[in-house]
Structures are given as structure tokens and as C-alpha cells.
From TrEMBL:
The keyword Signal applies. It comes from the Bacteria. The keyword Signal applies. This is SnoaL-like domain-containing protein. Residues 1-34 form the signal peptide. Residues 49-151 form the SnoaL-like domain. Keywords: Signal.
Amino acid sequence: MTTTPMFRLALPVRRLALAAAVALSVTPMLVSRASSDTPVAKRNETTVREAFQRWAAGASIFPTLLAPDVVWTIPGSGPVAGTYRGLTDFSERASGPLLSRLATPIVPQVHHIWAIADTVIVRFEASATTTAGHPYRNQYVWILRMKDGVVANGEAFLDLGAYQQVVDDNPRRPR
């Protein structure tokens, strides 16, 4: 069966919507068990919010927000889906293939941040321009487990089709 480009994009978008729905539906249950007004939750929310503000202003946040031994998982199917162990592994195999094909920095626009004890959930969209001059836009839900002020475990839900299209259709930036 031949799939149309619209169908290929529809499945990842549905997965992203499902991930967001799960995150949003679980939040009230978690809040009842551990209030987001706890000092730990507030501190974690502030850490993540400030990191995203720096990112929106053009700074790289991964070296300061992620622990050196972070475990980062991207659920789904496709070349980038999988679990990355350590900041170097994540940078080289997950974010590197995308970032090397962007002519401009990714600019996030946060829609909401939820913090419950040591877990912070961020729903945002981000955009950039590819090396071929095309727009890159994606929507994300990140679930971050914090430890000692940095992300120890992260799970990123995004449209993997949009990610892969940038990697497949754009040349790497010259080094």
C-alpha cells in the first residue's frame, strides 16, 4: 500500500496528541498526590522555565539542563527513536543530526509547564530554518525527571516525521 505524505504525517501528529492527552489527563491525579506548591516542584519548574527562556533567547540549554549521565528516550519509530545514555550520546545521535541541518537556532515557544515533585512536563512548539531555507516546525511534550537541579531522565514526544524530513532533505551545515 502506498501512503500519501499527509497520511505519513497524520500518524506522528496523532501520537503527539495522544502523548499530550495522557500527560494532561495524568496531571490532576499527580497533583492530588504531590502538590505543585511544594518547594521541590517550584524549584524544578523554575529551573526548567528559566532554561527555556535562555533557549528562546538563543542559548544552548542541553549542557546545563541535562545531567552528564542523562537517560533520554524518544518513543516512536524511525531512526531517531530510542534511548540515549549520557549527554554526549544524546547530542551526537539525537539532537546533532537535526541541529546540523538547521541554518538558524531552534526557538521554542512554551505553551505550558507543569511541575509535580521531581517531574516537570513541558508542552511547547519550536521553529527554525533549515540549511535549504525551508521552515522547520514541530510540537513537543517533554517529561523530565529532575535530580539535584538537572534532568536525570527525559522523555520527548514529537513529530518524528517532521524531524526525519529535515535530516533527509537538507544538507549538513559546513563545520
